[in-house]
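Fig. S4 source data, part A: sequence.
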Amino acid sequence: MKRIFLRDSDRATSGFSLIELMVGTLIAVICTIGVMTAFAAYEGQKRTTTNGSDAQQNGSYSAFMLERELRTAGSDIVQGKNYGLWGCTVQAWSNTTKRLPLAAKLSAPFDNWPLATHVVPVLIAAGAGSAADTIGIVRGNAIARTFRTNLVSTTSTTVTVDNGMAMFSNEYIMVSDKTSGKCSLGRIASIDGAGTTFTFDTTGSSSVGFNGLYSGAAYVFDLGVDPSISLFGVNQTNNSLVTYDLMQEGAAAGTTIPPISVADNVVQMKALYGVSATVNDLPISSWVKPTGATWAIDKLMPDTDTADALNARGQIRAIRVAIVVRSRQVERAPASSATTAGNASYIGYSGPATITLFGDLDTSLQYTVTTDTAYRYKVYDFVVPVRNNLITKFF
């Protein structure tokens, strides 16, 4: 038998055996799995951090915007508290279209707001069931404030007052009649040389001005060039904090500007009144929900103003707001495709299915928010004093 011997050079070029290739492939697969596991863990942590930051940013911005507006609530109308302005039903126009009172109910999320809006610094309309609350804010931004300007006379296009100091063209004024309980907004187009007779911009005022609208002693209040009668609520369809301009400045005749988004991924907003024991007390004696025979929106803004409504509005000292925001992306995979929001079982997640708002208060003041456990949630709870409601002295 003839034997064949391989030289060293032949062995060097003969390649890998099948066993060697399989071992090498196995090692590569193990290394790949290890790398991918580490990468998945890193991405999961990164996603959680990013989503938490997004939720925190949205919550912080929502709280900032609401707090800023709430702190200005009642600006330029404080002096009207005892002169027929507070509680009067607002009449307002823009681009020849009457905007207030509303001709029809607004769509969600503001469908809980009444047709007639009264001059009150801040009010809350409770959302039914799990619906979010609506916060309404009235404010002006005049350069200066004139105490108790009296209405002397009116025509279809002008108003004459006894003191026009610090009132300028393009500013809005509100005329209030304590006897009739009426109040109307109008925008000044020009002022005469004496500074006491204003000609109105007919697109931003009643077509007949204030002529014949007032039966008794009327007072004029300067609200500046950019007054605001606005609503804040949560669109729970697309999860966003939105605001709506009731005055509809800038809207074309016969049209409306829809609600404007303020922040994304906001799922709930609830609010409480901090009230004093009496109108003349300043400290908050209790927190109350915006519901019931005293604090519901229709009781604070009745069709015909009452002494009870006036007293209740005068007791409001602060607003406490809780905003619930959630992460942008799904955090956990559902256990099955049949899961539903709020009661689903998600792989690896053990977070609560509900969140309690105002948990430090009595249970009667708390709200329970049902969550989708695929997301992470944050709650922003803050108190804002209604500073212009703290002024109780008769001016």
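Fig. S4 source data, part B ends here. The first helix runs from residue 8 to 12.
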